[in-house]
Amino acid sequence: xxxxxxxxxxxxxxxxxxxxxxxxxxxxxxxxxxxxxxxxxxxxxxxxxxxxxxxxxxxxxxxxxxxxxxxxxxxxxxxxxxxxxxxxxxxxxxxxxxxxxxxxxxxxxxxxxxxxxxxxxxxxxxxxxxxxxxxxxxxxxxxxxxxxxxxxxxxxxxxxxxxxxxxxxxxxxxxxxxxxxxxxxxxxxxxxxxxxxxxxxxxxxxxxxxxxxxxxxxxxxxxxxxxxxxxxxxxxxxxxxxxxxxxxxxxxxxxxxxxxxxxxxxxxxxxxxxxxxxxxxxxxxxxxxxxxxxxxxxxxxxxxxxxxxxxxxxxxxxxxxxxxxxxxxxxxxxxxxxxxxxxxxxxxxxxxxxxxxxxxxxxxxxxxxxxxxxxxxxxxxxxxxxxxxxxxxxxxxxxxxxxxxxxxxxxxxxxxxxxxxxxx
Length: 424
Hints:
Blueprint: H1 10-28, H2 33-50, H3 54-82, H4 84-101, H5 109-123, H6 128-138, H7 143-150, H8 152-196, E1 210-211, E2 214-215, H9 220-224, H10 227-248, H11 250-256, H12 261-286, H13 291-300, H14 302-308, H15 316-345, H16 350-379, H17 383-400, H18 409-416
Antiparallel strand pairs: 1-2
């Protein structure tokens, strides 16, 4: 059997489209986008019923994000060691069950926090930490585009989940919303992953990621001693800190501009569309141009969006444009983490390294809603945090320009010792 790396790049999609589709659905209904796309609509009803502040409610999401992020390297290690298929399937099923149980929370903020802790504990394996490993192993020449397609799952989630959340809250209250939304991962993502999702056999993997029949790349220890790792780590943290709370609190930000909840759901859908376009466009460019330069303008534009979202003026055009700008940047950032992790550090220990790079994304994205909520509680609006986010977007974009060229791990392994590629 010929290796994918020796045939046309088009054949990567003919061989790997089922894995890519299963991963896309897994990302869409996993623990990364679903909480982001539901909490903003539940904050108001939870506040009205429980009397908790916006910051207190947002802290539950922060606990989820921090716990999940700290465990991302563990789940990455499990995927490296035992295979990505079993980790992704079990974690997605566990996420569905625990997410549904959030709706059972009594009038106790501690139990509310505990519920989110458990969601983070079991759910991180249902995110791109696992799904992207398999896709990176099936694709090389079209890796940027394939990852862009994979991560369109978050766009699909942003298009579908807010409307389901609004409908289910109207029909069953915020408590009923959680089990209704949990049906998506349980009844759609898990069965499709069981049917189609797997890693390639050695003869199916792209030639460029293999040497002597094994994957090539850095060990985790080597990557942690590499300046590029920490540059990327800080850049990811800056961008996630700026964007995470803006997305979660977007329905409330929109309402402060005098718009309805229904219109807010539509604007959240606009974010989903812009993430969709951003992922495909940037992924396609990643395969042709140096990724950090591609992302420079894309990550600078959201600073304008943060400027426009300040105040209370009702200008629907600017609100929609702001949503598009933020969504486009979010699409680029998620692609960037998976793509640059594989290009700068290789695939031999991708799960652990990607997990470490997911950590700043998850932690900052988890802290960000609390910061946005705290600013809202203290000042009555989100302007102070939006101003800080303008600076964070600029810093995150500029840091990427210092990363330098991609290493060629297959060539290095063949030159040094092709019979003993780097392992953990």
